[in-house]
Amino acid sequence: MNDKPLISILMNCYNGSRYLIESIESALNQTYQNWELIFWDNCSTDNSYEVFCQYNDTRLRYFKSDVHTGLGMARYQALEKAKGEFIAFLDCD
């Protein structure tokens, strides 16, 4: 059993594919390993989903909003999916 607390990293994305690889890689390259990344797609119209799908890591969790919202509401909705004891925010750009 892992005795280190789970960190939930919330990444809200709206058409952020340009920097998305760099952002996801920054989470994957952390030395602390007990985390989950909640990727909240805020109705992107670019290829953000396809970029996200390039990764095969069970810590990465994808969710898509039904409607585009402001950042505050998007963060709140992503927070509802988090399972971690601690919360971190990582912008996709």
Structural class: alpha/beta
Major sheet strand order: 3-2-1-4
Number of helices: 3
* Outline: globular
Poorly predicted runs: none
Main sheet summary: 4 strands, parallel
| β-strand number | 4
Beta-strand percentage? 15-25%
Portion of residues in helices?
25-40%
- Determine the oligomeric state from the structure: single chain
How would you summarize the topology of this molecule?
Blueprint: E1 7-13, H1 17-28, E2 35-41, H2 48-52, E3 60-64, H3 71-79, E4 86-89
Parallel strand pairs: 1-2, 1-4, 2-3
Comma- or semicolon-separated keywords:
alpha/beta; 3 helices; 4-stranded parallel sheet; 93 residues; 28% helix; 4 strands; globular
Describe this structure in words.
- The structure is a single chain.
- The chain is an alpha/beta fold.
- Helices cover 28% and strands 25% of the residues.
- It has helices at residues 17-28, 48-52, 71-79; strands spanning 7-13, 35-41, 60-64, 86-89.
- A four-stranded parallel beta sheet has the order 3-2-1-4.
- β2 (35-41), α2 (48-52) and β3 form a beta-alpha-beta unit.
- The protein is globular.
- The N and C termini lie far apart (34 Å).
- The model has no long low-confidence stretch (mean pLDDT 96).
Q: What's the short version?
A:
With 93 residues, the protein is α/β, with parallel strands linked by helices.
